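As a warm-up, study this chain.
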Amino acid sequence: MDEEKINELLNYIIKVPSDPNNKKESYKFPYVAAQILACECKQILDFFIKPANDLVSEKEQFKYFERLLSFVDVDPQVEEINYTLAGYFMKVVNTIILARPKEALLYIYNNPKHTDNLIKHLYSKSITNLLVVIINAPKDLFNESTPVNDLLFFSKQIFNARKEIFQRLIKLACKTSYEIENQEMHINICSILIDMIIRVDQ
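Now compare it with the structure written out below.
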């Protein structure tokens, strides 16, 4: 499978179908694309995050991972994300994070716009679940064989970013508590905050 074909599969996940009544474009093709892109196949993983070397810039290394993350780069005041595609998006991103935690998570945390975009769409349970995975790293994603220095370095890199996310979620929880139209978002935000607080003592 070449890069162009994998990119075509990616389109089915991040682009809203032009004709919602077309069942193949709206349901079948995105489902099949997600099943393929969410497999822990080296060729697929290397498509999203190219192996690092001196000849590959960061922009090129994460070119398609960035394109995948662009799914949530929309203004919710203008248009809500497609809930079905959000589930497939979460599945693929989650697979990449589990398979390449250090590269994927450092890229996300070093580019705050991605967590900002996710927070905008917390009315979606799929996006909420994905943000939980991102916030709770590295504890959930590194095992006992991971070098201590790697864990310390990673934790130091993301500590301030997680603190900022927590503070932002607190403010957003207060704001949405009075907005009837955002009650689902409020519930999702509170569930993230509770999870973060519980994990502090673990």
